[in-house]
Design goal:
329 residues, alpha/beta
Length: 329
């Protein structure tokens, strides 16, 4: 189960599928559309999926609330959190503390809402003075409400908010400023590939093959994002070049570009960061149980360090990447 319908940020899954890397590894992989990076996490075991792609903070919270049969991350794609609060560029919110007394909208189980207690703790925000308006309406509508002054902010992923507005012909970068979680809580990670404990126990070779195929997909997406976008277009019924292209490039340049990945590769994590993230979420979210790091992540199925994908900057931003950026700007 993916965190949403297939779109630009899923390009590496699409490229791996199109080039036969899953089949070559003896796997049959089917992608189902989820409804958010946080809400997908509990749905994995509840609905019988072998695995999913969702937010690591949401995984920590689930493990702290109900550790039984909780998925385990086997590859952390986003080594920087994409979580944000979008506020009006010319509005009253200029800094995190300004959120007090304001109304912030978001989807009912939005990853940014789920991690907001940690953000508030580190930013010195009185969380009780922030009103969260949960709504099932579209992200585009939630963001437009901010632009129109009907709400003070919107929770979400930076590139998801921008893409939602772009789909309606609105330049989100011009109308919104973003209070990005990574500026306040840099220890947090983002989306990860996670598998159920039963699948890991019963099919360790398949888990290793799955992670290896995803790693190949990321490497080749970094090398040729245009090819990855073409593969995505063939799998995504609602693909839009002017929306999905920037979303992919933003993902490669930001969420998958933390400096630590230059040493350990995309997919792995820093044990200290994970431990601090767990402690922070356990405290701020008042979790009844503090999960152990090994309950959240295992690197047992990652390729050797030398074979792991590295951030885009290390690929020299070659002509292919530059052409894609120009074509989707």
């Amino acid at each position: 189960m993916l965190n949403s319908p297939i779109s630009g940020p899923h390009a590496f899954f699409c490229l791996a599928h199109e080039r036969g890397y899953f089949a070559e590894a003896g796997l049959e992989v089917e992608f189902a559309a989820g409804d958010g990076a946080a809400s997908v996490v509990p749905r994995i075991p509840q609905e019988g999926f072998d695995g999913g792609y969702g937010d690591l903070c949401a995984l920590i919270k689930l493990a702290g609330l109900r550790s039984d049969n909780c998925p385990v991350a086997v590859h952390v794609a986003f080594n920087q959190t994409p979580l944000t609060i979008g506020v009006r560029m010319d509005g009253p919110v200029r800094a995190p503390k300004d959120l007090e007394g304001k109304v912030i909208g978001g989807h009912p189980i939005d990853a940014a809402i789920e991690a907001f207690p940690a953000y508030a703790l580190k930013a010195g925000i009185d969380e009780s003075r922030v009103s969260i308006l949960r709504s099932t309406t579209s992200m585009a509508t939630l963001a437009e409400d901010v632009l129109n002054g009907h709400a003070d902010g919107v929770f979400g992923f930076v590139h998801t908010i921008i893409a939602a507005l772009a789909g309606k012909g609105i330049d989100g970068r011009a109308g919104l400023r973003f209070l990005e979680y990574r500026d306040v809580v840099p220890d947090l990670y983002g989306n990860a590939l996670m598998l159920t404990p039963d699948f890991i126990k019963q099919h360790p070779d398949a888990a290793r093959a799955l992670v290896g195929a995803v790693n190949r997909g990321i490497i080749e997406t970094l090398a040729d994002p245009e090819a990855a976008l073409r593969a995505t277009e063939r799998m995504a019924p609602k693909f839009a070049r002017h929306v999905d292209g920037p979303r992919l490039m933003g993902t490669l340049h930001v969420e998958m570009a933390h400096p630590e990945a230059r040493e350990i590769g995309i997919g792995d994590i820093d044990d200290g960061r994970l431990a601090r993230s767990i402690a922070m979420l356990a405290q701020s979210c008042r979790l009844p149980y503090r999960p152990r790091p090994e309950q959240i992540f295992t690197r047992a199925f990652l390729p050797p360090v030398a074979l792991r994908a590295r951030p885009l900057a290390l690929h020299g931003r070659d002509g292919a990447a530059n052409r894609v950026e120009r074509s989707v700007a």
